Amino acid sequence: MSKTLKVGVIGVGGIAKTHMPGWAASEHAEVIAGSDVVPSVLEAWGQLHGVTRLSTNPADIINDPDIDIIDVCTPNMYHTELVVAALDAGKHVICEKPLAPTPADIRRMIEARDRSGKMLMTAQHFRFKGSSQAMKRELETGVLGDIYHARSWMLRRGWIPARPGFIYKKNSGGGPCIDIGVHILDLTLWFMGNPKPVAVSGVAKAPLAHHEGAFSQWGGVPVPQDMDVEDFAAAFVRFENGATLILEVSWLLHHDTPGEDMQMWLYGTEAGAHWPQCKFMETHYQTRQFSNRTLQLINDTMEPHALECVEFARCVAEGLPSPVPAEQSLQVMSILDGIYRSQAAGREVRLEE
């Protein structure tokens, strides 16, 4: 019987709650330890999941010789030091998105991964949805030809996470650009085959968050007026292969949706496609006809946040590549960082090699 991988979770009070069902379902892993800076939250989590190895100091978890995997679920600005320390301690690491708040931080992580020879994965859970998996398989047949343009957006109407981990740059590194833009951008680049981005023209600002009476439908709370990140961002991205992308993200847009509108359009030389409908639009030039078809989807077998943990453990156990390589997260963050740099410069910016 193969060894059961032992998991330690750092940051148990937020998104970690969605990871725990995956660890519980995994045939390859089990959670044996946890760390959080809030003792009461840590104790309650430990009691709920039957975990007794608890510490408010993450170093205790990272340096525990019994632990094989570290699951980093802290606010964004704390990812880098924890991930690098865990890799240097010889642990495999799955880290919540965004992998790090800057491209330079991700490069540090890649260097640590290469030193350790361990696996590093970004928890981009939308890749694990049934619709995403079906779309990716179809795209890999080459049905679109060369994808030369994409449009993608993730827009919310008044659904801002008005909590310190999200709305203050010292904790998050940015607003919706980093929080939800990372989701739709990662998925779009993955569907496009991860072409190399070379330039970005973008804006990132907060036209609504400081409006008198601004509030969030998420808990019905007011938006703190000292919030210092953007609530809207948009960009035009150029890629080395000549392809282009238009990206839009917002927490507070006056948009006709009750909650969240997440969509993507891909345009190729042979056909177009839409996600999440998984619809393909084809032109038959010989007969001068158009046709649309929609993939037949199978319902998700598990909630995607949980499934990503199951797949990570399986890949570690079976010696397979990382399901979400850090190099792909570096492309994502290079673009998002480029949006912030473009906003500051007031012009298009080139991305680092």
UniProtKB/TrEMBL annotation:
This is Gfo/Idh/MocA family oxidoreductase. Pfam families: GFO_IDH_MocA, GFO_IDH_MocA_C3. Residues 5-122 form the Gfo/Idh/MocA-like oxidoreductase N-terminal domain. Residues 133-272 form the GFO/IDH/MocA-like oxidoreductase domain. InterPro entries: Gfo/Idh/MocA-like_OxRdtase_N (IPR000683), Gfo/Idh/MocA_Oxidoreductase (IPR052515), GFO_IDH_MocA-like_dom (IPR055170), NAD(P)-bd_dom_sf (IPR036291). It comes from the Bacteria. Signal peptide: none annotated. GO terms for molecular function: nucleotide binding. It comes from Litorilinea aerophila.
